[in-house]
Amino acid sequence: MITSIWQDPSTKEFYFKEHINSKLKKEHKYFNLIFEDVYIDKVEKILSKYRIKSFVNIDFNWKDIYGKNLINTTLDISYNLFKKISDELERNNIYVYGKNIMNIFSKNISENPDDKKVWFLDIEVTSENVDDYNGYITSITYYDTYKNEYYAFVVYNKKLYSNKNIIFFDSEKNMLKYFSETIKKDQPDIITGWFSNGFDIPYLIKRADIYNINLSVIPYLKHSSYQSDGRFYNNIPGINLIDYLELYRRYVLDKPASYKLDIVAKHHKILGKTEHKGFNYYNKDMKKFIDYIFRDVEILVKLENKLKLIGLICSLQSLIRIPYNLLFGTSISIEHFIQQFILKNKITFRFYEREKNDIKITGAIVLTPPNKTFDNVIVLDFTSLYPNIIATYNISPETLVYSSNYNEKHIDLGRILVEEENDVYRPLKFSLKKEGIIPALIKFFLKERLYYKELKKNTDPDDPNYVIYDIKQYNYKILLNSIYGVLGTDNFALHDTRIYLAILAAARSALRFVNNELNNHHFKNIFINGRYIDFKTKVLYSDTDSSFNHIECDEKLNKKDIFEIGNFLTNYINESISKKLITKFTKEKIECTLNMEVDKIYKRVRFFGVKKRYFGYDFDRKIITHGVEIVRKDTPDILKNILSSLFLKALDNELKMDDFIFYYNELKKLPLEDIAIIKSIRKKDFTKYKTLPNHIRSAIFMEKVYDFKFNYDDRLLYYYIKYYNFKHFGIIKNIFNKNQSGKIYYISASIERKHLEDFKKLLYNDFEIDYFTLFKKQILSSLKQFSEYKDLIEKTELKIKLMEGYPLKTEQLKLFKEET
User: Fold this and answer.
1) Closest of 385, 711, 717, 415 to residue 586, by C-alpha
2) Is the residue at 625 inside a domain?
3) Helices (H), strands (E): how many in the chain?
4) What separation in angstroms does the CA of 214 have from each of 22, 189, 192, 233, 369?
5) What span, in angstroms and rounded, lies between the C-alpha atoms of 445 and 475?
């Protein structure tokens, strides 16, 4: 078993390890020149031009996915020469097939991260301005998973510790030289860090260049780093460079408000690092600096122990057998897996240009729900709807026969457009003569995912295999969800908008069928929880692949009743799909993989009359919600907790003014950092905004008046404030374009986390937090979605204004007194 691979991006040669502690070996690289057999004479002339007279192998038995005859010639040449030949062939209108074969490693690769040496790395530098690489590196800290040890290399003219893992150097040059030697000696397979490919690695390379030091496991290969379109492309030969932040953004669904490592750590209940910058400690207290530099690395190690993202990407690589960097491109990774999947059958493909068409894509079905509260709601959900649509209807580029006259065994999904959607007919016919490549791949993914889900289900969570099975099933889920998306992406080799249209039309048809079957359906004499009952289902809402069904019954239903009704409905609807839906589009008997399952069960749920927004709880009072402020990333956690409590009271018709007043008073006691609204910075160049967002105006104000320096590399902390220092009223009017109210300006302030302590010092001198506006906009406005509480909320606003000493108009005061 190969434990690790690395591919040289300039030569496409693979280097590999056979054991975790073995040295890298180089695999001899051959290149496959694959072309249509009708061009054999032209290809021979071009090969002769480049003095190619001998071949490792010639195979005449290859085909492309459409059945074209191909010739596969295996050449023992360099990548540069192969590229020159390929380019010339294509200039002569001769397509080259199977280009991605060169990136697929020929042997199996271990999926186990314990078979690889992983370094979790972090550096510190002397300057806060890191863009010019002028500040020297003060420390390099890393954790070696193979040795299970932390190491720190530090530039300092004294030796403070006898610890063998903390090494001091008199200069940055000597430290980098030692780091280079350590890389060559220990040969880590992976180096990862938090934003490491955007900061740590390019910084190490740029500083090493100053001293002519090469960072490389392979002596004759040189490191490199360059930036293009805002992205760094780094290369330390022999080492896979994986940015843990990129992994986190890509694969973690439950994300915090900020991607600062200490915030991420706190979000995952890991002790965060100190707020001080490393260079501050470096100049003042070296012992504190040493403590500080280990914290980032310790957090990364704890994150990996919790999230297993390195394990996930290693498992994904073992499936697709390509370099890690290619795994981050969705269409690229899918193309390579398809190629690997069909390689054994001597089938390949190229990038197929599609003729332009006038097809307009209609999205998924999303209904508008009522503005009302319901009890006993069952949500049925299609399992992997789009992949199962592909598998059931044999949808694939090579099975599509776009012809009205085609009458052999097929499925005609074009009928959906005419019969169900009043659209123009298009012959979206998919042949059933043979199984398509994409459906075959989908079925393989579905089978493997189900297998590992079952293994996980039957494994104790404390068993190490539990995590392995979970990672494997999740990888198959990633691949399943990716295939549908890339089919409609222009840069995907097998893209086709007609296929994309067919998948979406079939998905809409399937959900429409389910809703029609269940809406206002009277089920009589059904055996539920030990007795026979009658009930009616009414579809309240539908979104993409889900159907929300209210269960109406004369009897009072308990948790077990609803669960059994849910199971009955899934069996009923799955049988109906197979018998009634599929037969609408073909007379042939085909395997139907489309099925539904119970996704959620609500004891009570409130819809707000708009799409993708609802709030409820299950029979254990666990909140299940979508689209409301409780789940928004920019809502502070403490406000989410307050909203959750108030939403529950509103849902149960128990909300009173005293509840609002209680939480308003509690809000005023909270630390400033807990009540900040998180705002994203989408454009650093403010001239590109048509209208400046208020949080950007607020940052400009704080920079202009208080000299707060902004990096704009993290989300802003946004506060509503009451500003009363009249000296700056002119600046406020100019920036915010608004007038003062009496002797106060009601504006906002944006800061970065590093400004927090300085911001606190300004409180009650120039301004104070405007708790009323915060509560009104973040809490009261959200509760207004419960239309029945509109009057109560208006009275609450008046009450709080009175508490805070706001001047009320006579009619407001009179109204409040009358109603209270």
Assistant:
1) 415
2) no
3) 27, 29
4) 22, 17, 19, 17, 62
5) 9
Strand locations in 652-809, DSSP E?
677-679, 716-723, 745-751, 767-769
Q: How confident is the model at residue 815 (pLDDT cuts 50, 70, 90)?
A: low
Amino acid at the residue 224: S
Cα–Cα distance, 339 to 101 (Å, whole number): 7
Among residues 571, 600, 617, the one where a domain terminates is 617
How far apart (Å, rounded) are the C-alpha atoms in residues 129 and 698? 23
Task: Please list the residues that pair with 599 across neighbouring strands.
Answer: none
DSSP assignment, residue 409?
Answer: S
58: domain CATH number?
3.30.70.2250
In a domain, 457, yes or no: yes
Question: 17, 110 in Cβ contact below 8 A?
Answer: no
Per-residue exposure over 538-552, b if at least 16 CB sit within 10 Å of its own CB, e if not: ebbbbbbbbbbbbbb
Identify whether 196 is part of a domain: yes
Residue located via tokens 């893209």: 495
Do 123 and 272 have their domain in common?
yes
Q: Answer yes or no: do 121 and 93 share one domain.
A: no
Do residues 246 and 328 lie in contact, with contact meaning Cβ atoms separated by under 8 Å?
Answer: yes
Residues 559 and 696 in one domain: no
- pLDDT(81) > 90: yes
Phi/psi of residue 763, nearest 5 degrees = -60, 140
- Sheet of 596-608, strands arranged across: 521-528, 531-543, 546-552, 371-382, 596-608, 614-617, 623-626
574 with 714, same domain: the answer is no
Residue 658 lies in a domain: no
Residue with tokens 């294509």: 90
Is the domain of 588 the same as that of 678? no
Q: Domain span at residue 449?
A: 385-505
Give the 3-state secondary structure of 356-367: CCCCCCCCCCEC
Are 582 and 702 in a shared domain? no
Q: Which of 509, 576, 581, 539 is nearest to 365 (CA)?
A: 509
The DSSP H or E segment spanning 335 is helix 330-343
Q: CA dist 466 to 66, 114, 302, 308, 454, Å?
A: 41, 16, 18, 12, 11
pLDDT greater than 80 at residue 271: no
DSSP string for residues in 554-613? SSPP-HHHHHHHHHHHHHHHHHHIIIIIGGGT-SS-------EEEEEEEEEEEEESSTT-
> Which whole-number Å values give the CA distances from 113 to 250, 329, 347, 465, 772, in the listed order?
19, 21, 32, 13, 52
**Mean pLDDT of the region 578-590:** 91
Tally the domains of the chain. 5
395 and 423 assigned to the same domain: yes
**For residue 809, what pLDDT is reported?**
65
CATH number for the domain that contains residue 470 = 3.90.1600.10
pTM comes to 0.88
Nearest to 399 by CA among 351, 450, 440: 440
Q: Locate the DSSP E strands across 454-585.
A: 521-528, 531-543, 546-552
Amino acid residing at 313: I
Domain boundary among 442, 471, 505: 505
What gap in Å lies between CA 160 and CA 166, rounded to an integer?
Answer: 9
Q: Are residues 150 and 291 in the same domain?
A: yes
> b or e along 458-488 (b: 16 or more beta carbons within 10 Å of the residue's beta carbon)?
ebeeeeeebebbbbbbbbbbbbbebbbebbb
The span from the CA of 366 to the CA of 612, in Å, is: 8
What lies within 8 Å, CB to CB, of 811 at 6+ separation is none
> 187's torsion region: left (phi>0), alpha (psi -120 to 50) or beta?
left
- Per the structure block, which two tokens stand in for 181? 């030697």
The enclosing domain of 251 has a CATH number of 3.30.420.10
Please provide the average confidence, as pLDDT, over all residues in the chain: 92
pLDDT band at 317 (very low <50, low <70, confident <90, very high): very high
Distance CA 596, CA 620 (A): 23
